[in-house]
Write a structure and sequence with these properties.
- The structure is a single chain.
- By secondary structure, the chain is mainly α.
- The protein is 75% helix and 0% strand.
- The protein contains 8 helices and no strands.
- Helix 1 crosses helix 2, helix 4 runs parallel beside helix 7 and helix 7 runs antiparallel to helix 8.
- The longest helix has 29 residues.
- The chain is elongated.
């Protein structure tokens, strides 16, 4: 692993655990085993390093969820939408540090980075919205979702996703989380398919 990659991994973990203000560049450098000035060979400053790891975490999440869009021909809309929620859960389990980092800063961004983080989030949200729209339109084409206005359905599904994201960090029991996921999805589906 390169020094640059080690710096990103240490930064992601420390920014996620201690916050932006609570993490010093010297601490990141020490964890990697380099002197603080070595960071400047790769990043302009602390903000540059932070935004690099934040954007990469968001991109990693998007890529993970977007892999589903290629499966839509094989699966019906209902199963595709359920798999989006399951895929989100898998991402949280497999990429905990990235998940903690993104959630922490989307909800509580440092004031001076608020606009930059919001823009990164909106880019991510646009990609996710596009996938959800495809699956809901597929459901309308299949006849499993009655023709209706698309935007309220997309918004409702994204709210289910956001609620489940918070639930994941509240509950350590896989069984409890999966029960909540299934109940939330079944309630959503019953509402949109009737």
């Amino acid at each position: 692993m390169t020094t640059k990659q080690k710096l990103k991994e240490a930064a992601m973990r420390l920014f996620g655990e201690k916050g932006y203000d609570g993490t010093a560049l010297s601490e990141i450098a020490k964890e990697v085993g380099v002197k603080t000035p070595a960071i400047y060979a790769f990043y302009e400053n602390k903000e540059d390093l932070f935004m690099t790891v934040f954007r990469e975490a968001m991109d990693s999440y998007n890529t993970y969820v977007q892999e589903l869009s290629g499966e839509k021909k094989k699966l019906g809309a209902k199963e595709s939408l359920r798999r989006v929620l399951a895929r989100q859960y898998e991402f949280y389990q497999r990429h905990r540090e990235e998940s903690v980092l993104v959630l922490r800063y989307v909800v509580f961004p440092p004031a001076f980075l608020k606009e930059t983080i919001e823009q990164a989030f909106l880019n991510s949200d646009g990609l996710l919205t596009s996938i959800i729209e495809q699956f809901i339109l597929q459901g309308m084409e299949e006849g499993s979702i009655p023709d209706q206005s698309l935007q309220p359905l997309v918004d409702a599904f994204l709210n289910v996703m956001d609620g489940l994201a918070m639930q994941y960090f509240y509950y350590t029991s896989k069984e409890v989380y999966e029960r909540k996921l299934n109940h939330a999805f079944d309630t959503f589906w019953n509402g949109v398919s009737s």
